[in-house]
Design goal:
The protein is an alpha+beta fold. It is built from nine helices and four strands, in the order βααβααααααββα. The model has no long low-confidence stretch (mean pLDDT 92).
Length: 175
């Protein structure tokens, strides 16, 4: 028997299924920021990719987000990208590299990653998993086994996510 303290419980996970060219996902930014501000490290917010066919730069944007993750700047990149969807619509993939440059990331590495496709398998795997669990549009949130669809309406979603997160955190403290 060991005298070492029990490992802390893992933070509850909120999966944010997104298409990075989706106007509704742009609207979700305020909720994501508020959730991060409220919970900090107590809630793990995970970016999950679900690029929709109707957005022709979404698949490349998902790959770019993975490169930003690799360079340690996933959320700043995602937030900047979702905040500038119109520029992505106009300029396409060159905007993904330019945005990386603006944020001080290695833009050449972004360009290479988009050309060599090193992140395609991650995006494909997310998309397949999303389909398997019933994701049909974006944004979709999954927390505590519950799927919340923000593509139809985001009304009340943050409150519902907070309710579930609070319950999961309270359950952890009782264990």
């Amino acid at each position: 028997m060991s005298d070492s303290p029990a490992a802390p419980a893992a933070a509850p996970v909120l999966d944010f299924w997104t298409d990075l060219q989706c106007p509704d996902c742009h609207l979700a930014l305020d909720d994501l920021r508020a959730l991060r501000a409220r919970y900090g490290d107590r809630l793990e917010l995970r970016l999950r990719h679900f690029p929709l066919e109707k957005h022709r730069h979404a698949f490349a944007a998902a790959q770019a987000a993975e490169e930003a993750l690799e360079q340690g700047q996933c959320w700043p990149y995602v937030e900047a990208l979702l905040g500038r969807i119109e520029e992505l619509n106009r300029a396409g993939e060159s905007f993904l590299v330019e945005l990386a440059r603006e944020l001080g990331l290695d833009a050449e590495e972004f360009d290479t990653a988009l050309i060599d496709g090193r992140h395609i398998l991650i995006v494909d795997a997310d998309q397949a998993e999303g389909k398997a669990i019933g994701v049909t549009g974006t944004p979709t949130y999954v927390i505590g086994g519950e799927r919340l669809d923000g593509g139809k309406s985001q009304e009340g979603l943050r409150a519902r996510i907070e309710e579930i997160a609070d319950r999961l955190l309270a359950d952890q403290q009782q264990d």
